Structures are given as structure tokens and as C-alpha cells.
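User:
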Amino acid sequence: MNLAAKMPAILEIRTPTGKVYLLEGERRSILVDALNDWYENKIIRSIQRRGSDSLDKVRLILLTHGHLDHFGGAPGLKRKLGCMIAIHELDAEGPRSGRNLPLATRNAWEKITKPFVSRITAEPFEPDFTLEGDEGDLSDYGIHAKWVRTPGHTPGSISVVFPGQTAIVGDLVVGRFNAPRKPAYPLWVKDPQEIKDSVSRVLSYSPKTLLSGHGGPLDADDVRKFFLG
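Assistant: Predicted structure:
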């Protein structure tokens, strides 16, 4: 399969706290991440603007990881879109509990904010199916791309890669607070080396651009220099 030759349109839906991405195939679409539930109407309106059948085309909400700011809006969106929800099996406890997965702390700011972030809850739900292993194909859902497991932020974090083109990386890599197009480590990282290993895996597909859940877009060469020297 020539994934690079069948690159879908990618719609970035931006909010004050993060982004989701609509991958538009010819007949079917995938929504990558769902944000918190208070952005549900904004996401729906953004999809509707793509055309009269745009909502019906969304077959899957693909969650990059098990943190509430990425899965909290998924059950409400599913009810409006009539689609399925998927997440990697290693992160499925987040949606099932309606709480963030355990948060690792590396600095004073994370230690201060962790008690408050850990108390936040969302509507719990059971994913329609879970991803297993280290990679898979998304063509059954109308998008010619691969998902690959990219742990470091969470054990079951995934990225969506279009070889030679683009990668959507969730919170594996984020933009800096004061320079959103410059790469940085995300919050809640237990092992920085695991992040570097996952970044290396994404870059092995030779993307030109990385699309993050926070900040970006990020130039692949900048990401390589920052994480891998």
C-alpha cells in the first residue's frame, strides 16, 4: 500500500486548551482525539462546515492516549456522530474510569498541579474496541495511514503516521508555551528516554511535519535536533 500517495485532507480544530484533527477520506473520516466535553459543539460545527454529509462520514474517534483532555468529549461526540471509539488497550483504563491515568512528575510545577489535575473527572465509557500491539492499519476506516504505539507520555500513547508526509503525535511532543512551533517535552513524563525512543520511531517514517495536541505544527528537523541531537 502506498500510504504517502493517498494522503487525506487534515482539518485542524483548534481550541484554547488543545487540538483535534479530522482525517477526511473520500467516503469515510476519522476524528483523532476528542478534547474535554465542553468543546463538543465547536467540534461538531467545525466538521459540519466541511459539507452536508461530513458528520455521517466520521466512522471512528481514535484517541491518542488516556488523558481526560483528549478523551473527555468522546462519549458525547459518539452520540452525535454515531461512530465508534478506539484507544490502545494499555490506556483504556482512563476512559473506563473517567479519570486521568496516573501522572508522573518530574518538576515542582507538575508536583503542585498534580493533585488538582488528578481530581478532574469525565463521563466514563467503554471503548468500542482497543488497539493491540505496536502498530496497525487504518484503511478499514477509510484512511490510508498507520497507527504506531509511541509510549513515554502514557504506556498506550499512539501516533498516526503518513510516511514521508505528516505524523499526528498526540502529546508525545508538544509546542513550547511561549513558542508553540518549537518542540518541547510534554507534562507528565516518567522516562525521558522513552520519549526519545518514540520520537525516533515516528521520525523513521520520514515525516516532514509533526502535528501535536498542543502547539505546533512542528518541523521534523527541529524535533530531531531537540530530542535526538
